[in-house]
Protein: N-acetyl-gamma-glutamyl-phosphate reductase
Amino acid sequence: MKVAIVGATGYGGIELIRLLRQHRHVTEISVFSSTQAEAPLTSTYPHLQDVYKGILQSMDTEELATEYDVVFLSAPPGVAATLAGNLLEGKAAIVDLSGDFRIKEPSIYEAWYGREAADATITGQAVYGLSEWNQEQISKAKIVANPGCYPTAILLGLAPAVKNNGIDMTSVIIDAKTGTTGAGKNPAPMTHFSEMNESMKIYNVNEHKHTPEIEQQLSEWSEEADAVTFTPHLVPMSRGIMATMYATCTSYSSAQEWIDVYKAAYEAHPFVRVREDGFPATKEVYGSNYCDIFLDYDARTNRLTIVSVIDNLVKGAAGQAIQNANLMNGFEETEGLEFVPIYP
Amino acid sequence: MKVAIVGATGYGGIELIRLLRQHRHVTEISVFSSTQAEAPLTSTYPHLQDVYKGILQSMDTEELATEYDVVFLSAPPGVAATLAGNLLEGKAAIVDLSGDFRIKEPSIYEAWYGREAADATITGQAVYGLSEWNQEQISKAKIVANPGCYPTAILLGLAPAVKNNGIDMTSVIIDAKTGTTGAGKNPAPMTHFSEMNESMKIYNVNEHKHTPEIEQQLSEWSEEADAVTFTPHLVPMSRGIMATMYATCTSYSSAQEWIDVYKAAYEAHPFVRVREDGFPATKEVYGSNYCDIFLDYDARTNRLTIVSVIDNLVKGAAGQAIQNANLMNGFEETEGLEFVPIYP
Amino acid sequence: MKVAIVGATGYGGIELIRLLRQHRHVTEISVFSSTQAEAPLTSTYPHLQDVYKGILQSMDTEELATEYDVVFLSAPPGVAATLAGNLLEGKAAIVDLSGDFRIKEPSIYEAWYGREAADATITGQAVYGLSEWNQEQISKAKIVANPGCYPTAILLGLAPAVKNNGIDMTSVIIDAKTGTTGAGKNPAPMTHFSEMNESMKIYNVNEHKHTPEIEQQLSEWSEEADAVTFTPHLVPMSRGIMATMYATCTSYSSAQEWIDVYKAAYEAHPFVRVREDGFPATKEVYGSNYCDIFLDYDARTNRLTIVSVIDNLVKGAAGQAIQNANLMNGFEETEGLEFVPIYP
Amino acid sequence: MKVAIVGATGYGGIELIRLLRQHRHVTEISVFSSTQAEAPLTSTYPHLQDVYKGILQSMDTEELATEYDVVFLSAPPGVAATLAGNLLEGKAAIVDLSGDFRIKEPSIYEAWYGREAADATITGQAVYGLSEWNQEQISKAKIVANPGCYPTAILLGLAPAVKNNGIDMTSVIIDAKTGTTGAGKNPAPMTHFSEMNESMKIYNVNEHKHTPEIEQQLSEWSEEADAVTFTPHLVPMSRGIMATMYATCTSYSSAQEWIDVYKAAYEAHPFVRVREDGFPATKEVYGSNYCDIFLDYDARTNRLTIVSVIDNLVKGAAGQAIQNANLMNGFEETEGLEFVPIYP
Structure:
């Protein structure tokens, strides 16, 4: 399998390289960049010395379309929208890690993203790559819209409850916490070490663009789906997302019943671990493709509390992208992804 | 003002020393300990060299009752319950930083704390020391039950909404995040640096003992008060609490109306800052007695999101204790507490 | 005392505001900026809401020279060099926190700083503000060159050994570690949280511009002074410097003898604490103007190891600047600086 | 290859599990503990759910000696000394990660470790497992004393300079910095998050027990070897060691010459990367078995500055242990160890 990565200088891009290095079916990895072409990747990322010797190549859509089996697009917003038309004419399976094709309805995309939506034909063709729940569609797809980091943790956490009609869909509140790598490689005041360490922040309250992505998927799962409250926070750590989700219950009335529902839902899915005994910490999935879930039911308030944790750069980005590429290519879903979490 | 601190080796205790050193009316600070008597405090806390030369004295209730103007009790659970009876016979104003006297109803105390409640007569006498809202009662009190760190942030955040009957009291969800000093000085696996750094944790879901303290105060403010969902998280930082609170609105329908309500409520209170423009980060109150609040209203869900941040050791413990002692002694409320946040 | 701060939007500038707020002789603080004039300081630093209400004023050298008693210059390199000539004609005492006037020899300045040296007349007039060792000169000075953060920790640590001729001056090696605030407010890849957390870095090996500043002062203390090895490191914390210094001994042969030498040297200096028993951690001086020192002598190698810690923004910048302004104005050296370290 | 791990509940133990899971020749991993037998490992380390299902077995020396091909001893000090005699009679290759067999001279061991030395016959038989420099001996060994974390970084950094007789052996000063995992799993005041975050510490000055281990190896490489100064520091991060080493040069007089010497020395060694261009940060080897080295020569002082970084739990413990087991078993040195550093 010949693989191309477009936008390899971002954190999603180098995480793809880290993971693909362990993939048994990958024979070649090429990296492309529109902005830094001709430089060795090690000049941006010296930790790749002796690991990856490739030079950043300037974009050549035709080469991408014809020479590679899989093209991962991890470029900034808008780049995939421009490239995808031509790429779709070639042989490569396409996995887009940007948000360009996630939102089906252009007006919603434009309202939340504040930019023009991609060609609706392409977006229509793109399968939403929530691996555990769209497995069949993904395996037949030519292009996959890889989910956002927050939606991955949140949707995996909500799915069994929603699909079992166990919660009041108007009551869903999501309080999410992320490490700083979610904000990308570019230095900015919000993620400046001096002002981020020893600090807990909140941002984009009621206006984060992952909101419509979450709501769109929920509405495919339930006719009762409604607007959700989604609040992102920034935590002084590099990697990890924890989503704490609250909903009023309409069925079941004990934590154990709920745990059983979740265990049944994820039994066949190696990357989702419904925890045996106690809530997970983000560090317990660090560097791995796991999503760990646990929950509690509170009889006093009749509310369910669901907690879901992932490594935002793995299951929340590069790991799930490879999982999807595996499905698209008929490989084992877990190929190249069986990393044990780095702990501590 | 002669001051005694019982339990000076805990984080609350040394924070009292730090703050009282700037207090113009304090003439003497004595420190007492039941476990480490006769040692200089600097042998536990070398950062106090040249600052505080006192020796930890063994407990002498009579001396405490008769020699001091204010006694701060920052000892482990149960110690204050044992001491207070005798202390109340003396002249000292008493501020208890433990949870021994916060819960009025013994059965509720025992259910959540898992230990015997203190003498109901004393608890009945103890005024709940939420300085901004109980000012008058505090100023007449002989003994004050200083609020817990979480309840301080949460109740200051909820008060104007609750007292204005602006929210549905059955809808209150509190997602709170704290730094590790809230867990105290004793090393434990949960706060071991190796396993806490780069990790976001959740704990005591639906069973944290600050829950009844929050509900008790809410029920004094509103007849509609109901059980709340309160979820504490542990963040990789030493100091700081952020409480993110959600409630369905029953009146007002814009963020600005809500901000006006809050500004009016706290106009006369120098330690609560309703923020001008944007949500606060915990670092923005670091080391200070401020509680910073901001909020947003979401028309899509008709929900209010309130965020409140404090330094858990200052406004959440030692700072508010001194603020209460000031009120009890007729000093300026702000005396000894006018620290500017350390930033960054 | 009317005070002006030029360059108040940097970390040194706001630290001056934090400290000056506690200074009993300060009646007014004005802030000036060449780049962001007319904005309230709170738009950059919301933690100053209700604390500091001033508007950033555009630079007016004449006003600075005539209206203020003290002018603190904490602007970027080169600004002080431009302003000082005019300011010196006015009444204000000037404390420059930039490096513009620290190096007496222009060719050395130019070799290490890579920019043109300031007017030699002004540099000649500027007294090096290492408060503990230049007290007399500082108290008579019109303009003080406030020491760099590293040189402060290092020179206070080396002074007694050097002045007692106790070490071989050709053997001095300084391994220094700093928090990220030393790198300033501008976001940069090196201090991007995602790449700085969980990482220890080294930078400017053998070429840091604080090297000649250290050597210049050593050569005033000892005729044997020679080139030193100085290696700066960046540690994942916001505040704090630890300098670990090594030298071969030419006299004394026990740790205790050395400790006695140091205790004698700093007996009269309230901000330097020779530790009683054990080496200091940086957190033990956090937020305070202390410099804590301890040392050990190793008979196996005949080497002295001296460790010195400071808060880089206080004793390493704003605190020492105020200490110098106090000396220049005949106030108590400690005025406005008696903060207890924030611990933990 | 059947593998046993004694002391699997420590950080070294679980890191062995993480790495061995990727090792193609490992067919079985059993874990033993003297203190927590019969419990599933996941009750201590929930991140291993679905990854490692083994139960901690109580120690059975005979089983260890006869049933396994490799026994990794990662138990507390003294345990290996007790077990090794019996184990040596069995078939297993033994790699001891404790310090029990590193020091050849019992009196030196006892002076630095403050406990009785192991049986001299066994210690005599144990080969020091610095993989890159003792490859041949290791491949023939029955028992390997795996190097300490600090000595690994330090000796790999010093070796080429020492073996080329390029430095004055009386001038060697080692300033080393480690993350907290080096201090192990047991919670302690020194590594309590609240007091470790935002703090730089120094400990065991001139008395760390890795000192004689370093000196012993240096004296095998050079007749001029002498006592070294070795100073360990604790940095607020979980993983990583940076050793900054200083020595006066006796030959070569440019950084480039030195880099060439180092490149030649490590050309054939895949886990030591002499960096192309600039000093390494610890995060650049995070989670990997790499040791990255860079250096500078300063003509002003005629000193060489060598910097070496490792992940203390990988190349400094479990990774090098597996590397040694590979050599002992005739596998590829890199088997199971080709992880790309996790960055950021």
